[in-house]
Amino acid sequence: MAGFAFEEAVPAHLEGERRAFCVESRIYRGTPEKPGLVLGLDRGGSCRGIAFHVAAADREPVLAYLRERELVTHAYLEVERQVRLERPGRDYVQALTYVVDRSHPQYAGELSREAVLAQVRDSVGQAGSNRDYVLATAAHLAGLGIEDPQLTWLADQLRVDQG
User: Fold this and answer.
1) CA distances from 99 to 17, 20, 86, 108, 120 (A)
2) DSSP one-letter code for 57
3) Are 54 and 4 in contact (CB under 8 A)?
4) pTM (two decimals)
5) Which of 27, 37, 68, 131 has the greatest number of beta carbons closer than 10 A?
6) pLDDT digits over 111-139, tens only?
7) Residue among 98, 94, 89, 110 at smallest CA distance from 37
8) Residue 37: which of 48, 50, 26, 47 has the closest Cα?
9) Closest C-alpha among 78, 84, 14, 86 to residue 44
10) What sign has the CA pseudo-torsion 99, 34, 137, 108?
11) CB–CB of 51/12 below 8 Å?
12) How would DSSP label each residue in 106-147?
């Protein structure tokens, strides 16, 4: 799930950033000639996700892992954001997040859902097809009980294409 050791995983809500297909993938889910799109946190709106509590002893190895995974091309900025934990008490905590760097060349901007569909439909990179990334991500979020209307619409369209 996370790829790193954690003590607790709690559904959480982030205000001020939304999940968006706003980062071009020129290696893993596409090529420089035909880039795919992957999700990033872009400003505006809000989104639900999972906040992971990491033990103090694991902090440095987890940070090293996340930085290696998320900062490969430096399309994301590592920032702290306040998130509301979705559990009794609904407390707010500071969470490490990775938001898209809008000045980075891989930032795709705000695309219509039709433009996203057209770009992900046939893109393939070293990690596989962009279509598989979208479908797997949609299934994963659904399994967590996280609704994302744009992602659901996109996955539905890709399934119709396979039809």
Assistant:
1) 8, 10, 21, 13, 21
2) G
3) yes
4) 0.91
5) 37
6) 999 999 999 999 999 999 999 999 999 99
7) 110
8) 26
9) 14
10) positive
11) yes
12) TB--S--HHHHHHHHSS-EETTEEHHHHHHHHHHHHHHTT--
- pLDDT for 162 equals 74
Count Cβ neighbours within 10 Å for each residue of 117-138 and write b for 16 or more, e otherwise.
bebbbebebeeebbbebbbebb
- Report the DSSP beta bridge partners of residue 20: 40
Contact 122, 34 (CB under 8 A): yes
Give the CA angle between residues 89, 90, 92 to the nearest 5°. 115
Cα–Cα distances in Å, from 5 out to 71, 149, 154?
19, 30, 31
Tokens of 16: 């001020």
Q: Residue 111 in contact with residue 21, Cβ under 8 Å? A: yes
Provide, for the chain, the percentages of residues in helix, strand and coil under a 3-state DSSP scheme, each rounded to the nearest 5: 30, 35, 30
